[in-house]
Amino acid sequence: MPIARPEYGPSLKDVAGPRVAAMRRPARWAVYASPLIVALIVGVVLLIRATPLTQAVVRGPLTFNTRYDSRIARVAAGPGELLHLRTKSGPGRGEEHLVFRDAGPPPTRPEPAGGPISQLALRMIPLVDDMRAKLTGFQIRSAGRVKIGRDYGGWLVRYQFRRKVATKPTEPARTFFGVRVLLLPDLAGTTERVLDMSLQSQRSQVVGNITEAGGNGPMRTPFYGVAFGTEKP
Fold it and tell me: What is d(CA 55, CA 118) in angstroms, rounded to the nearest whole number?
């Protein structure tokens, strides 16, 4: 007896049943197992999303916060740094560092568009010059405006360079992808100081190309989950 009423046409069982029965046994078992595989993938995604997050709050002239999970360690901040996060070793992951700095007061010159974001491009120039002088094989790959969350805008530069991995000093230098962002609330007349975000990611299975730096792996949450003030985004 058909499952669907005649006016609704044949059911999926009526259409697919004979085709599945005609398959070879391995293919048939693969079809039967596909719902279980999908359920397993969904379960893994939900488990990852349920991973407890640690909130890091930095207070001072520039107050901000971000969150990270157990795959990341908060390490001692270096000279000029406000917060330094580093990935722990793990399957398919390479060395990654995310550093936050104070880039000074917001631009004060008004813009026709009503916001200070484009002026951050001028403030990025000396930062790029400094990276070019210090990093081997430095190459800019792209630059332009970036939107982080609903309320923040900034100027972004993506670049690549070569460096030896800290844990493998005897091995040849590896390719790293970098993302440098100067970030502000995207509001005219903002009084927040400019947040300087610098991410450097070793090319790996998790970060296979420059577009995945900051958008894939453990660093995605602290990079895109940053917020001015002490409240979680």
Answer: 30
Determine the distance from the C-alpha atom of residue 30 to the mean position of all C-alpha atoms in its chain, rounded to a whole number. 34
- Distance (Å, rounded) from C-alpha 186 to C-alpha 154? 8
Distance CA 99, CA 83 (A): 6
Tens of pLDDT, residue by residue over 194-209, are: 999 999 999 999 999 9
Per-residue model confidence as pLDDT tens digits over 122-139: 899 999 999 999 999 999
Beta strands in 76-167 (DSSP E): 83-87, 96-102, 136-148, 152-163
Which tens digits make up the pLDDT trace of 156-178? 999 999 999 887 888 899 999 99
Tokens of 172: 């040849």
Q: Distance of CA 145 to CAs 45, 51, 120, Å?
A: 30, 31, 9
Distance CA 231, CA 233 (A): 6
Q: How many CA atoms lie within 13 A of 136 on its CB side?
A: 8
Query: Using an 8 Å Cβ cutoff, are 124 and 107 in contact?
Result: no
The CA distance from 120 to 124, in Å, is: 6
Q: Comparing C-alpha atoms, which of 129, 134, 107 is closest to residue 189? A: 107
Nearest residue to 210 (alpha-carbon basis) of 169, 161, 150, 152: 161
